[in-house]
């Protein structure tokens, strides 16, 4: 199946049928990847490049760059695919992903998923902000997709311990509709939330245990 039709099916997917869509997507990816070869040497070189920005263990030291360790394999594979196709915009990641073959997307995402998950943000959270974030997360049932411990699964990101500034930006991008993702779930989830609400959610998620 050509990439273009995978992407257009992602756009077309609706909230009630997303499970079926995801299963179909996974099958489409598996088919595409099964037929492509992986070059071991250049794959290692490409994986080594990730560390320059995301840190040795997938733990970034730059507030604007996400930790990637412990992210679900499917989530990472989809994001790399979105960056490669220009469906998710980032000058850095669009450049990185441009050169990756389908087989490399699979192999790299398997590697990333095995890196250790980031620990909760160190230090003491702002109590009021943390509580507000926790209450909002409950109201908007974030855990129903991202797991009770926010560890993520399948195409749904790990959120726990993520860099606060990065999470705020991600939530703003969904709210503004510039990041869509695998289905319309995230833009719908953050609709109507204020900047302060998004900041409280990101604070809660950075410190959550
Ligand atoms: C030049 C720096 C740079 C390099 C090299 C780089 N990244 Fe990134 N990466 C970023 C930035 C910046 C972002 C956040 C972009 C955004 O907001 O969409 C990002 C985002 C990501 C995301 C999305 C994470 C999320 O939680 O949504 C993944 C997955 C990722 N990178 C994987 C990789 C992999 C795998 C490699 C190596 C093949 C790599 N990156 C190399 C800078 C880099
Ligand atoms: C119906 C399922 C669903 C619900 C409910 C949901 N999410 Fe998500 N979330 C997803 C999916 C799927 C993705 C990956 C989307 C993509 O590909 O960009 C995602 C991605 C994210 C990301 C991007 C993470 C990253 O590393 O790039 C953040 C942040 C996030 N969700 C936060 C939240 C918060 C906060 C809530 C509650 C207010 C929430 N989500 C509720 C399904 C959901």
Structure notes:
α4 (73-85) crosses α5 (91-98), α4 (73-85) packs across α6 and α7 (127-139) crosses α11. This protein folds into two domains: 3-114, Orthogonal Bundle (Cytochrome Bc1 Complex, Chain D, domain 2), CATH 1.10.760.10; 127-207, Cytochrome Bc1 Complex, Chain D, domain 2 (Orthogonal Bundle). It is mostly helical and 209 residues long. The protein is built from eleven helices and no strands. One heme C binds at residues 66, 78, 137, 140-142, 144-146, 155-157, 159, 162, 167, 170-171, 179, 181-182, 185-186, 189, 201. One heme C binds at residues 46, 49-50, 52-54, 65-66, 68, 76, 79-80, 88, 90, 92-93, 96, 108, 112, 157.
Keywords, separated by commas or semicolons:
2 domains, 0% strand, binds heme C, Cytochrome Bc1 Complex, Chain D, domain 2, 209 residues
Task: Give the name of the CATH superfamily of the largest domain.
Answer: Cytochrome c-like domain
- CATH fold annotation of the largest domain: Cytochrome Bc1 Complex, Chain D, domain 2
Ligands bound, unique: heme C
> Could you report the average pLDDT, rounded to the nearest whole number?
86
- Identify the CATH architecture of the largest domain: Orthogonal Bundle
Count of DSSP strands: 0
Rg estimate, integer Å: 17 Å
The geometry reads as: globular
Which class of secondary structure composition applies to the elements?
A: mainly alpha
Give a concise summary:
This protein is mostly helical and 209 residues long. The protein is built from eleven helices and no strands. The relative contact order is 0.15.
């Amino acid at each position: 199946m050509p990439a273009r039709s995978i992407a257009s099916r992602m756009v077309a997917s609706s909230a009630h049928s997303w499970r079926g869509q995801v299963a179909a997507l996974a099958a489409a990816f598996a088919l595409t990847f099964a037929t492509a070869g992986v070059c071991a040497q250049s794959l290692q070189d490409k994986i080594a490049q990730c560390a320059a920005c995301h840190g040795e263990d997938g733990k970034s030291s730059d507030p604007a760059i996400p930790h990637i360790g412990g992210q679900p394999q499917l989530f990472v594979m989809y994001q790399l695919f979105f960056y490669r196709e220009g469906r998710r915009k980032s000058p850095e990641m669009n450049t990185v992903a441009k050169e990756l073959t389908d087989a490399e997307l699979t192999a790299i995402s398997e590697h990333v998923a095995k890196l250790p998950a980031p620990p909760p943000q160190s230090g003491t959270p702002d109590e009021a902000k943390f509580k507000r974030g926790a209450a909002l997360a409950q109201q908007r049932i974030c855990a129903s997709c991202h797991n009770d411990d926010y560890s993520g699964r399948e195409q749904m990101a790990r959120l726990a311990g993520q860099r606060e500034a990065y999470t705020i930006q991600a939530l703003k991008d969904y709210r503004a509709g510039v990041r869509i993702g695998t289905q319309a779930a995230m833009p719908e989830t953050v609709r109507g939330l204020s900047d302060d609400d998004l900041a409280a959610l990101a604070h809660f998620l950075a410190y959550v245990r």
